[in-house]
Amino acid sequence: MVHTSRGVTVKQGGVATETGPEGPDIFAAATAAPRAMRSDAIKNRERILAAAEEVFSAQGLSAPIDMVAERAGVGVGTLYRHFPTKEALFEAIVLTGLRDLVKAADALTDDGDADPGEAFFAFVRVFSRTVSIKHDLVDALGAAGIDIKSQCSETAGDLESKIQRILDRAEDAGAVRKGVTTQEVMGLLIGACQAAARSTPDCVSRDRMVDIVCDGLRPPVTS
Q: Which of 84, 100, 123, 139 could bridge to 19 as Cys pair (CB 3.0-4.6 Å)?
């Protein structure tokens, strides 16, 4: 394996294959997790994604890939074998985040003992923590000419329908004001997270703004 100006050249079976900005399709790389992989490869991929979120959250999206590899405890070559470009890594983080939100929504709706109101507001906080960095990644991918929104539209649509179920249950239980739509909830949360990031980029400011949104979503108090 050698590094080149375009990316990394990986020898496979004696044949040199170059990865990088003009290499393999980056969306295919970002969604490669479902393919059969060795357990160590799966663990490396998960470590890289977790490290990337930490690094990009703390250092911004301009943080070098080398820093991600170091945080994950893997070599740069290993990182590039999973994600040939930085954009492929961005895409994988976004898609993984969406899938994690779908799983979280499923867990809350499948828990028959959970209070509908508490389940809804618990999901609101999970959503806000996840969307904080993901929205910046979507913007960065758009600036690079990559339409991630259309590529993950099916997963996003699945997530929206599950949020609707959680919202409907909370509304039926009287925990959320009548007439609130899923799009309004998502818009309020995304807006609050963006505003918090612009003013004071820390989780305390974000959580306070989300608390204010939650107060507004609850039914008005009647005297």
A: 84
